[in-house]
Amino acid sequence: MPRQQLQQQPPQQEPLKGEAHGGDANVVPDGDEAMEEEVDQEGYASSTPTSSLTWISWFCSLPGHEYFCEVTEDFIEDEFNLTGLNSMVPFWKEAMEMVLDVEPEDSLKIPDVSIVEASAELMYGLIHQRYILTRFGLNAMAEKYEAGQFGTCPRVYCLACHVVPCGRSDMPGLDTVKLYCPNCNDIFTPPSSKFQGVDGAFFGTTFAHLFFQTFPQFAPAPYYSPSGLSTSAVSRSPGNSTQPAFVNPNPHGGQKPAAGKVYTPKIYGFRVSERAKSGPRMRWLRLRPEIPGELDQVDWRGRWIGSDDDEYEEDDDEDGEHHMEDFDPVGHNR
Ligand SMILES: [Zn+2]
């Protein structure tokens, strides 16, 4: 007996090598040992879900899988939704049986159940990327968003704005999941290392932005007044001074107020000049116009209204520079 134990131990203590797991499209049967090791490390090698739990709810309840919503079986069973995916997932049929909790037709064919688990995870992730762009998926994610299950932006002046998961690629195996903040329009690494095993492609590049288009009430308004002026009180748009100022019944146009404060670097209380070599360049990228009226000064092509230039290509630069003064950070803060 002792000898047998000795023989069995070394493979289990093999160091963990591969970084990517599950989300790797190149999963091949040859890599089953490494895959099994990784799965062991994740703590779901003995993964056969208990009878009452579906594979999908079990998968979504694993540590690190908190960002996933549960894809409905109807969606997975509709082959139209899976177009093109079967070429990306090895052991497609077996993975499908696992995800849908169908008894395998011929379990002898499967060399190792952990391979199918990796395929099932990849398959579920890729289906998930598509599902969260549908109405049902967006609603499911909205519920999680409202409950704060994706966490908050780490940037101080975003005032704990809720974030959504996103990917930097729609192809699996390239990058892990990131978090997008609608307030500062930037992406962040999730705060816990448990998310470093989750492929960003399982959320994709479109979801975050489609989400805030679909639910504008979750997105911060694109304007912000540091002085706290009522945004509806002022109308500065040129040319219609004779008309009564439009008063929006909803002060933020259906959106929530922005957390618009921008950090100001200071040395002994003096602002670091924007022209200093280490100065705060491009601060205006995070600034917002103070009143909604300023947003209406841009037409649908992004040109400033009232500009004399007819040439679209040319007025891009000149106009941009001229009106950049509106975004001068010095005027906006103390
Ligand atoms: Zn933010």
Automatic annotation (TrEMBL):
Superkingdom as given in the UniProt entry: Eukaryota
Quaternary organization: Tetramer of two alpha and two beta subunits.
Composition bias type Basic and acidic residues, residue spans: 320-334
Stretches with biased composition (Polar residues): 229-245
Pfam families: CK_II_beta
Bias kind Acidic residues: ranges: 307-319
Highest classification ranks of the organism: Eukaryota, Fungi, Dikarya, Basidiomycota, Agaricomycotina
Chain intervals for the UniProt region annotation (Disordered): 1-33, 229-259, 302-334
InterPro entries: Casein_kin_II_reg-sub_N, Casein_kinase_II_beta-like, Casein_kinase_II_reg-sub
Membrane-crossing residue ranges in chain numbering: none
Family of the protein in this entry: Belongs to the casein kinase 2 subunit beta family.
Molecular-function GO terms, alphabetical: protein kinase regulator activity
Recorded coiled-coil stretches: none
Protein name: Casein kinase II subunit beta
Bias kind Low complexity: ranges: 1-15
GO cellular component: cytoplasm; protein kinase CK2 complex; UTP-C complex
UniProt function note: Regulatory subunit of casein kinase II/CK2. As part of the kinase complex regulates the basal catalytic activity of the alpha subunit a constitutively active serine/threonine-protein kinase that phosphorylates a large number of substrates containing acidic residues C-terminal to the phosphorylated serine or threonine.
Signal peptide: none
GO annotation, biological process: regulation of transcription by RNA polymerase III
